[in-house]
Amino acid sequence: MELLRSNLSRVRIPEPTNRIYKQECCISFDTPRSEGGLFIDMNSFLAFGKDYVGWNYEKTGNPVYLHIKQTKKPVPEDRPLKKPTLLAIGMEGGFDNHEPEYEESHNIVILPEFVSLSFPSVELPEKVRLAVDSILMAEGAERKEQVAAWTADKKQVSAYAMNLQQIDNGVIVPPSGWKCAKCDKTENLWLNLTDGMTLCGRRNWDGSGGNNHAIEHYKETYYPLAVKLGTITADLEGADVFSYPEDDSVEDPLLAQHLAFFGIDFSSLQKTEMTTAEKELDQNTNFDWNRIQESGEEVEPLFGPGYTGLVNLGNSCYLASIMQVVFSTHSFYSRYYKNLNLKHAFETAPADPTLDLNTQLTKLGHGLLSGKYSVPAKEKDDIANVTASHSKQEGIPPRMFKTLIAASHPEFSSTRQQDALEFFLHLLDQVERANAGKPELDPSRSFKFGIEERLECSSGKVAYNKRVDYILSLNIPLHEATNKEQLEAFQKLKAERGSDREVSSDEIVRPRVPLEACLANFSAPEEVHEFYSTELKTKTTAIKTAGLTSFPDYLVLHMRKFVMEAGWVPKKLDVYIDVPDIIDISHMRSKGLQPGEELLPEAVPDSEESSKPSANEDIVSQLAAMGFNYLHCQKAAINTSNSGVEEAMNWLLSHMDDPDIDEPISQEVRTAEVLLSFVDQSKIDTLVSFGFQEEVARKALKSSGGDIEKATDWIFSHPEVSESLDMDATSSNAQSTADAGLPDGGGRYKLIGLVSHIGTSTQCGHYVAHVYKDGRWVIFNDNKVGASIKPPKDMGYLYFFERMNS
């Protein structure tokens, strides 16, 4: 006790603003249920496993710890099942996930000798008792993230519900026998709550669903709310109400009143139709879903180093699939596992290692690759008192990593499904920033490469534009399908059957497009209309071709399976991609300015006509026809240099929330640019003295209005700028210099991983990873890891290739 009293100055009573970790070690995946329990530093409130608490003592000198140990309670044979009252798992009122109950013990432990004192005890100093009580009563930092992960997103009350106008046109909706007013559909029917029209829902990407009559009715009438017939029961909260202008499922507090207007007595209705969420879940059990997850196959579970699963934290499969593939690359394996042990990472980390990305990636790398947590899950039969090993593993929950990587991206902080591609790019961006100043350590560079676009106008002169990227995004040319005869026969079969009989999954024929055709499509010449030629001083048609200036260590191919149809309706291409195990892209290397080629002259600064922004009217009109704001369409065309509808669409979707999106396109844009070009040279010199390149400093000051502090922040948040400035070189001699910082080598690659997706959009459904490891394909499906029997190589969303040594 005297030892504890002599260290009271190192004990703090936590304040409400303190982050308290008590569920997981900050540098490993140990928990209070681990064999050694968990030690909470009573000064910093960080938690450590038994093997790591000594490191914290050596680093900080903090000797007093609260030790928490949880031991499983015996399960009574007659344990009653509780009826859920909340759409949640593992929470009070939620679904019973048959989690065992644990009893918790607490002790005060003093390092370095691990002297243990029982808690509670009246002999303990009051300060220690107060500190421990505060720690135990506080909601842990990990738990705050966990709660949101399991609770379903609550529907918002529609802005149109309270003042909904209903038209008395004599419509009385019968309790059954519904049919679409415009076709013969008798399922997936929606009742418009304004005029009582019963119409079919949207057509799904696979051809199932309705015929879009309900949404077409909204576009004609602007009547906002519809309820799905068959989902209405005495419990109105379960009814599926959709708001077309809000484009989401919503809550209608006056639904009973709105239904009664059309003679519907909801108390007598029984549920016969699935809600939108249930329908989506049902679609995920189809043939493709089973193929991607290899359901029905006798998959051999795998354990040991490199075969650790990741626990799904609530729609986090996008993160799990990307991290499994990323940590199978030599660059991430070496940076965060082979060449960096946990102790060194912790010693060099800031005071709070939970906020340091390199530390958390090292923690995740060691968790995935060491094999420590990749063991068969044990389940004890308390009645027979026997412990048995199961073929599944528990996996590790990447909570701290997800919290940290999502801190700078609000969407990844949510529990909604996200686009795996977007997460991959965000990850590499954050990794690059975390390794700023140490490019030799940066594993993200192994994915980076240069792209060069060549534009030749009708004058015969050329222009070259260069940029760097992490992924090669490929359109899928459906006209290059290799099974056209089978497709034509399938279409004929569907036409013969009509809408009366649906085609079974076994009969469906999908286009098969070779990957080579997708790569060739990327490099193929493309016409660019309305191109302003500085040689001809007028608009003309140019021919654009593209190639790679360097070949990365790891080439990531993104298949553009999601396209926009008219009316801004996303559609998923139902297509298979035939992907070989080895590809050769040597022919895709760009050659730069060739002998005899002449560059287009630079634009004359004082030529108002040539410099004034001008949008391609064809691009603008096509976007506007999809329902986009006309001004926004003009800006999208201008900001993508009129390169095409799809490029403009992508720009528009990612800039719709820009604060200046509604500002008019100024005729004085060029004037403003000229004014901005005059930057105080003394400020440039100041930034150069910090070690920045002069051109980078100039660009940063232009972008920040001449403010040095903002310019410095801008440089650190745009690490790619120095590379992109280098990439402006247009001669073949300069090309080698421009690409000197990028990895490069031969053009032969082998397939090492793929991320597959099933669902109607990237924001729903499920992601699964397949990785080629130790001479075989392995499936990573959240916490399930097994030897793959039939890897779905033709169904990938992202393909990962590793450059082969020549």
From TrEMBL:
Gene3D superfamilies: Cysteine proteinases, DNA helicase RuvA subunit, C-terminal domain, Zinc/RING finger domain, C3HC4 (zinc finger)
Gene Ontology molecular function: cysteine-type deubiquitinase activity; zinc ion binding
Pfam families, alphabetized: UBA (PF00627), UCH (PF00443), zf-UBP (PF02148), zf-UBP_var (PF17807)
Protein name: Ubiquitin carboxyl-terminal hydrolase
Catalytic function, reaction form: Thiol-dependent hydrolysis of ester, thioester, amide, peptide and isopeptide bonds formed by the C-terminal Gly of ubiquitin (a 76-residue protein attached to proteins as an intracellular targeting signal)
Domain UBA: 614-655, 678-718
Domain of life: Eukaryota
Enzyme Commission number(s) from the entry: 3.4.19.12
Role according to the record: Recognizes and hydrolyzes the peptide bond at the C-terminal Gly of ubiquitin. Involved in the processing of poly-ubiquitin precursors as well as that of ubiquitinated proteins.
Species assigned in the record: Nelumbo nucifera (Sacred lotus)
Keywords: Hydrolase, Metal-binding, Protease, Repeat, Thiol protease, Ubl conjugation pathway, Zinc, Zinc-finger
SMART domains reported for this sequence: UBA, ZnF_UBP
Assigned protein family: Belongs to the peptidase C19 family.
Domain UBP-type: 156-266
Active site as annotated: 317, 766
Gene name tied to this protein: LOC104605724
GO BP, one annotated term: signaling
Domain USP: 308-804
